Task: structure prediction
Amino acid sequence: MEQAYAVAVWRAVQSGKNPKEAVEALRTTLAHRGRTALFPAIARAFRRFAERERAKNMLTLSLASVRDERSKKEAMRALQALGVQKESVEIRADDSQIGGWRLEGQGYLLDASFKKYLLEMYKRVVENKG
Result:
């Protein structure tokens, strides 16, 4: 039930209603129905829902080190070619990468990581030995 309330508030805000007014309207509705105890659970459901929506609309750029400017520049060139805005990209460090970059989200997966290239080389070597 709290998820339905959370989605209703989300949709109200998305349709242009002021967030503060939407929450106040929810509080009034809950008070009128005697369900104010649901408010904390609705807030948690709203947070989860908002996080899922944000994740859907974000791209994640994984780098071996966030200070790797060369890889960032290459990835940003790829983003421009795709027509993706820089604001929708979250940059994070990935300990499993040696170098290069990996971009994923919004239906995209661009992998220019050293890890990918090394695995491809390893597979080719193993296949040729057999």
User: Anything to note?
Assistant: The helical segments are 2-14, 19-33, 39-57, 69-82, 114-129. The beta strands are 59-63, 89-93, 100-105, 108-113. The longest helix spans residues 39-57.
